[in-house]
Design a protein that fits this description.
- The chain is of the alpha/beta class and about 300 residues long.
- α11 packs across α12.
- The longest helix is centred in the C-terminal third of the chain and has 18 residues.
- It is elongated and about 65 Å long.
- The protein starts with a strand and ends in an 11-residue tail after the last helix.
- Keywords: Transcription, Transcription regulation.
- One of its GO terms (molecular function) is sequence-specific DNA binding.
């Protein structure tokens, strides 16, 4: 891969574009193409692109970032020229990729038919309805199927790009890029889009949010209920009732254990031994981690199939 071509549509999300561009920057020639030279991003920043496509080789990559729209149907529609370019590049043995709503472009090009794919969790049902011949994999970071690579929303484009970088240059080189970007070395495609820190924050209880802030920052440490209650300025009983109600049934301890388990699964998915993962997340040994894994059904953080 010597060149990465980004296909930009009106309302392009900046992080969908900038995340992968930062991963590939310095190693490849980056080209930005669009119907018009000037377009406006979803965040209001003007973007300049070129209207002429470069000559592509088989090893080059075409990537379609997502854009701002309430639904896929309501979003901008790629031109037939762009769809034809996607089809032709894939037919010639090249790789095409998308971030978030960019999967719509691959679907319109017919490249999702018979393949696994994903998109942002808010758009997954619509993607499945619009392209019934595709297999939409829900709540994963990215999928790889026959040189068609799709990722979920926003920051997951970085994970997709690091995966492609690693496939070409090896995990050590990808880890160096990730380190420069100050992100995880690389999250596996099968990991969930929404972490526990996000799943249990959809409430309006400020007291519980303050306690969650403390747990999120120190979940590897012992956090007795008395300390959490003192931090919130309420009694232990009041905190337990409020926390359970706000998080849909979790006590502060169960919430902390959920964070520990999720982090341990990430470490194990990246090659850590059970014992070392348990100790890193705050358990004295692996026995408690094994019990939690047996109690809770956790999807293995395996690598996506090629």
């Amino acid at each position: 891969m010597t060149r990465v071509v980004f296909v930009l549509l009106p309302g392009v999300h900046l992080l969908d574009l900038a995340g992968p561009a930062q991963v590939f920057h310095g190693a490849y020639q980056l080209t930005y193409v669009a119907e018009r030279e000037h377009l406006t991003s979803a965040q209001g920043l003007p973007v300049v692109a070129q209207t002429r496509w470069p000559e592509l080789e088989r090893d080059d990559l075409i990537l379609v970032p997502g854009w701002r729209a309430a639904t896929l149907r309501a979003g901008p529609r790629p031109r037939e020229e762009e769809l034809a370019r996607l089809r032709a590049h894939h037919a010639a043995g090249g790789t095409v990729a998308s971030v978030c709503a960019g999967a719509e472009a691959l679907g319109l090009a017919g490249l999702l038919d018979g393949r696994r794919c994903t998109t942002h969790h808010d758009l997954q049902d619509e993607l499945a309805a619009r392209y019934p011949r595709a297999t939409v994999v829900r709540d994963v970071l990215y999928t790889v199927d026959d040189r068609v690579v799709t990722s979920a929303g926003i920051a997951s484009g970085i994970d997709l790009a690091l995966h492609l970088f690693s496939a070409r240059h090896g995990p050590a080189a990808a880890a160096r890029v990730a380190r420069d970007m100050v992100v995880y070395a690389r999250r596996n495609g099968g990991e969930p889009q929404a972490s526990a820190m996000l799943r249990h924050r959809a409430h309006l209880d400020d007291t519980v949010h303050r306690v969650q802030d403390l747990i999120d920052g120190h979940f590897t440490e012992p956090l007795p209920l008395s300390r959490l209650a003192a931090h919130a300025g309420v009694s232990e009983r009041t905190l337990t009732r409020a926390f359970t109600r706000a998080t849909g049934g979790l006590t502060p301890l169960r919430y902390q254990q959920t964070l520990r388990l999720e982090r341990a699964e990430h470490l194990i998915g990246h090659g850590a031994m059970m014992e070392s993962a348990a100790r890193e997340v705050g358990f004295e040994d692996a026995r408690m981690l094994r019990r939690l894994r047996a109690r809770v059904t956790v999807r293995p953080a395996g690598r996506p199939s090629p």
